[in-house]
Amino acid sequence: MKKIGLYLFTNDLRINDNTLLYQASQSVDELLCVAIEPRLSSYSVWLSQEPHNGAHRHLFIKQALDDLALSLARLGQRLFVLERNTSEGLVQLVKSQQVTHFFASSHCAHDERQLVIDTLTQCPDLLISQQHHTTLFESDTFPFELTKLPRSFTKFRLQVEHLEIKTEESVIAYLPPVPQTATDPYREPLLESEASDTGGYAGGETAGLTHLENYFSNDYAGTYKQTRNALDSIENSTKFSPWLALGCVSPKTIYRHLKQFEAHRGANDSTYWIYFELLWREYFYWKCLTLGTSLFGRKSSDLPNEQLLDTTAGASFAKWKSGNTNYSIVDACMRQLNATGYMSNRGRQLVASCLIHELGIDWRHGAAYFESQLIDYDVSSNWCNWAYIAGALNPQATQNTNKQNAANQSQSKSRHFDLVKQTEMYDPEHAFINKWHQDDKASASTRYQDVI
Ligand SMILES: Cc1cc2nc3c(=O)[nH]c(=O)nc-3n(C[C@H](O)[C@H](O)[C@H](O)COP(=O)(O)OP(=O)(O)OC[C@H]3O[C@@H](n4cnc5c(N)ncnc54)[C@H](O)[C@@H]3O)c2cc1C
Predict the structure, then answer these.
(1) Based on the number of CB atoms within 10 Å of its own CB, is 439 exposed (0-12), middle (13-18) or buried (19 or more)?
(2) Mutate which of 376, 380, 384, 386 to test ligand 1's pocket (most atoms within 8 Å of Cβ)?
(3) Is the CB of 376 under 6 A from ligand 1?
(4) Which helix (H) or strand (E) is 351 found in, with range?
(5) What gap in Å lies between CA 108 and CA 284, rounded to an integer?
(6) 216-230, 302-316, 338-352: lowest mean pLDDT where?
(7) If pLDDT is split at 50, 70 and 90, which confidence band does 446 have?
(8) How is the beta sheet containing 30-36 ordered, strand by strand?
(9) Which among 87, 199, 218, 226 could bridge 118 via Cys, Cβ 3.0 to 4.6 Å?
(10) In degrees rounded to 5, what are phi and psi of residue 21?
(11) Residue of higher predicted confidence among 75 and 406
(12) CA atoms within 13 A on the CB side of 346
């Protein structure tokens, strides 16, 4: 009997360092390559008060899918893109194409896991292969059970940072053909010339790998620890996050480049700190997996019964989103996000702290707005960072007061940033603020001219 595979691309939109796709290429006679375009969930639509993903995020995803489609086409394959994030379309494909083998990246988030479970429930004969291949480590290499994941980042880091990371890359030179009965390429890839014109900040594996090469061909990594908190500019932090979020570049590929950089130019505190930050990403990934739906606070089915935001909070939230809170550092960061789809880590901490503490708004509204706008939106990094700042990452620990739990308690404290002090530290000349308030100045001078 013919073995027909279906490879579901989710947060692994890449060909390189894709061990699961390699496994698929070796185990079936024909293969369907399918992706589901990430859409804003109804829970996040409700919380963010945005109808769909913002323009920058939408474009970045589209570019990533187009680039993947192009790479697959070079291997004689085709990408089918489903538009709805439900099992319906998948089940239909499995049944109509008589799929026997199902391959999907393991995911840390509840909805994405549920999608696979729902598909398997309706197609119980499928043979499934899954892997967590968007992380540095496999969970079975940890010296603890996942159910006993340390409750603080520091404890986690100390136990894992010396573990071996396997970075050998699987090169895919061949993919089995598309089943002949599969028609309808759901999406036409961009023409090759258009795709390569989009430069280093475009979505997709090609642009991501180019960015990685560029970053490490400069000396930026050698000074990362001193510059990483800056509010702007490519040389200050790596900007790997957009490609990591969609899995266009794997963290292992980044780690391999980091080690090569250290071998050629020397290791120092800064190069270690890039690894340190990747460990934060790693920690939040496994944290998200262990927390399940509790990370998001409530079930989407509960939503219609809850008051969203009262009129005052609703107006404050709208001002926060558009960068009009009158906290100039916060407004500048929010305008940067709205204009580019990106915001620095420092900026994210400040705007989150402002939403939670100055404006008194439930952090989940902010997290959902980020979800709709960020080109690097990543479910675990986003929701865990927001919960961390809100002091909601380990909710149970707040009731626990004994000394041994001091570290856990620290993860349950909310972070409140002094916006004046932070501005003095990170934008003393107001260069960043002025950059993003230029429109105000232009419109103020227009108003002034109108008056005289
Ligand atoms: C409220 C809030 C929301 C966030 N939402 C996201 C998100 O949706 N997606 C996302 O990728 N990151 C998120 N972050 C983490 C961090 O801000 C971004 O990863 C970082 O700004 C990306 O820029 P960079 O690649 O230049 O980071 P660098 O400073 O160069 O760090 C290197 C890599 O380490 C990882 N990393 C760094 N800091 C963190 C962190 N605090 N948590 C998890 N991983 C980290 C990222 O993968 C990053 O690309 C959020 C942080 C906060 C405070």
Answers:
(1) exposed
(2) 376
(3) yes
(4) helix 345-353
(5) 9
(6) 302-316
(7) very low
(8) 79-82, 30-36, 4-9, 101-105, 127-131
(9) 87
(10) -65, -35
(11) 75
(12) 20
Rounded Cα distance, 67 and 205, in Å: 7
Task: Tell me how far apart the alpha carbons of residues 371 and 269 are, in angstroms, rounded to a whole number.
Answer: 32
Q: Which residues contact 424 (CB under 8 A, 6 or more apart)?
A: none
Cβ atoms of 351 and 366 within 8 Å: the answer is yes
Q: Is the CB of 281 under 6 A from ligand 1?
A: yes
Q: Answer yes or no: is the C-beta of 278 below 6 A from any ligand 1 atom.
A: yes
Q: Is the dihedral of CA 342, 347, 349, 350 positive or negative?
A: negative
Confidence label for 410 from pLDDT (cuts 50, 70 and 90): low
Whole-angstrom Cα distance, residue 317 to residue 323? 10
pLDDT digits (tens, 9 = 90+) for 225-281: 999 999 988 789 999 999 999 999 999 999 999 999 999 999 999 999 999 999 999
**For residue 165, which amino acid is it?**
I
Tell whether ligand 1 has an atom less than 6 A from the beta carbon of residue 67.
no
pLDDT score for 85: 74
Q: Is 382 in the pocket of ligand 1 (CB under 6 A)?
A: yes
Q: Are 110 and 300 in contact (CB under 8 A)?
A: no
Tell me which amino acid residue 351 is. Answer: V
Please state, in angstroms and rounded to a whole number, the distance separating the CA atoms of residues 63 and 107: 22
Residues 381, 288 contacting (CB under 8 angstroms): no
Local structure of 329: helix, strand or coil: helix
From the list 267, 271, 277, 275, the residue with the least C-alpha distance to 220 is 271
DSSP for 289-303, please give it.
HHHGGGGGSS-GGGG
**Arithmetic mean of pLDDT, 153-167:** 96
Q: Are strands 30-36 and 101-105 parallel, antiparallel or unpaired?
A: unpaired
Most ligand 1 atoms within 8 A of CB, residue of 53, 135, 270, 345 to mutate:
345
Q: In this predicted structure, which of 106-115, 227-236, 392-401, 415-424 has the lowest mean pLDDT?
A: 392-401
Q: Which of 239, 277, 356, 386 to mutate to test the pocket of ligand 1 (most atoms within 8 A of CB)?
A: 277
Cβ 389 vs Cβ 352: under 8 Å: yes
Using DSSP's 3-state secondary structure scheme, residue 190 falls into: coil
Q: Using DSSP, state whether 6 is helix, strand or coil.
A: strand
List beta partners, residue 102: 6, 128
415 CB neighbour count, 10 Å cutoff:
13
Atom of ligand 1 at shortest range from CA of 274: 32
Collapsing DSSP states into helix, strand and coil, what is residue 418?
Answer: coil
